[in-house]
Amino acid sequence: MTPRSLRRLAAAATATAATAALLAGCATTGGTGSDGGPVTLEFVSWDPNMETIVDTWNEANPDIQVELTKPSESADELVTKFITQAQAGANPDIVKVEYQSLPALIANGVVVDLNEYDSDLAGKFDDASLAQVQFEGALYGVPQDFAPLVFFYRQDVFDSLGLSAPTTWDEYAAAARTIHAANPAQYLGTFSAGDPGWFAGLAQQAGANWWSAADDTWTVAINDAASKKVADYWQGLIGEGVIKSDPFWSTQWSAEMNDGTLVGWVSAAWAPAQFPNIAPDTAGLWTAAALPAWTAGDDATGIWGGSAMAVTSDSKHPAEATKFLDWLNTSDEALALQISTINVYPAATSGRSLPELDAPPAFMSNQPDYYAFIGQVAPTAKSFDIWGPNATVTFGAYRDDFGTALQNGTSLSDALDAIQATSVEDLEKLGFTVAQ
Predict the structure, then answer these.
(1) 3-class SS string, the chain
(2) N or C: which terminal CB in the chain sees fewer CB atoms within 10 Å?
(3) How confident is the model at residue 112 (pLDDT cuts 50, 70, 90)?
(4) pLDDT at 220 over 60
(5) How high is the pLDDT of residue 265?
């Protein structure tokens, strides 16, 4: 539950953005609608193959046409861009945003409550998905996918060493030592200072709750005991030399995933969509298993990523935009296309029983029950009570402070203290009350 102060700030920001748009005479959609012509909606999304799905909608809906733009900016850069553009009323109609960034858009009045345009929309999602987009009863986005953390490992390497998938983090550490001892050129994984959402998911599994709020007061706990436990664990493995510290998505990391230097990846349900670009020569060699537990028998996991689609306060056609998002993220037709072309695990509850999930992603042909496995894991995923309205600042501090710690060989736990301080200071500058 977000505090009243977030809603008040959102209302004030929305009014300011609307005034700016009127003064500037800005138009943000290509269609007129009012003269009998088709409504045109501008949609920004980075999903591969989304154009195929948009074309399907456009062919069936001549009166509501969607123009897709694929951004060159990163997800975090896009959030900043949307906030800036809102000052001039210049945002597109529909934006894709990662869950952790949505509160920043709410606080800056960038997105609108969709309940006004479709009161039945929220009922198509479970509580875990709605928790990412629903605040004080208002629905600020339509969940697209759900991304629980799981562990991917090279089945061939594990089989050659007589290893089974680790069920606890102690077993993961033991497997990392065994693999590196058998072949000093191989590592079970890497710790990435470039992916704060990944670390946040690991902290969630351990019981962390970085942000919570009551009335008008926020509590920030990025350096809590659970998060430090996770940081200390990985620092120990890095110190032993059995885990690398290359950031995910780097050229070196991709090469090492492809050539067998790296034989494990703690990732999320969407990973099979990324594997063909990361490690194309290893198709059919990876198996997904449950995330190792801190305590044997505990099946909790965390969440890494996942996205929502939101309608901006600059849209002149919010009802039509909501209709498109309803189709895109809840209809069998659109979800079947997203599963087959984007490899999403749907957030919509109806989408989780589609026949398209009976076949694995092409890259995971050796694991025919891949989606059934994800379906078992998804209900065990933990998240934070709420993402902070300045999560993007926290994420930037993570990259800076964790990157410096890895480079200098200093404490990751101390880096969490620095991230905590940066996050609290920024939240207070934004005008929020923070519990001390």
Answers:
(1) CCCHHHHHHHHHHHHHHHHHHHHHCCCCCCCCCCCCCCEEEEEECCCCCHHHHHHHHHHHCCCEEEEEECCCCCHHHHHHHHHHHHCCCCCCCEEEEEHHHHHHHHHCCCECCHHHCCCCHHHHECHHHHCCCEECCEECCEECECCEEEEEEEHHHHHHCCCCCCCEHHHHHHHHHHHHHHCCCCECCECCCCCHHHHHHHHHHHCCCCEEEECCEEEECCCCHHHHHHHHHHHHHHHHCCCECCCCCCHHHHHHHHHCCECEEEEECCHHHHHHHHCHHHCCCEEEEECCECCCCCCCECECCCEEEEEECCCCCHHHHHHHHHHHHHCHHHHHHHHHHHCCCECEHHHHHCHHHHCCCHHHCCCCCHHHHHHHHHHHECCCCCCCCCHHHHHHHHHHHHHHHHHHCCCHHHHHHHHHHHHHHHHHHCCCEECC
(2) C
(3) very high
(4) yes
(5) 98
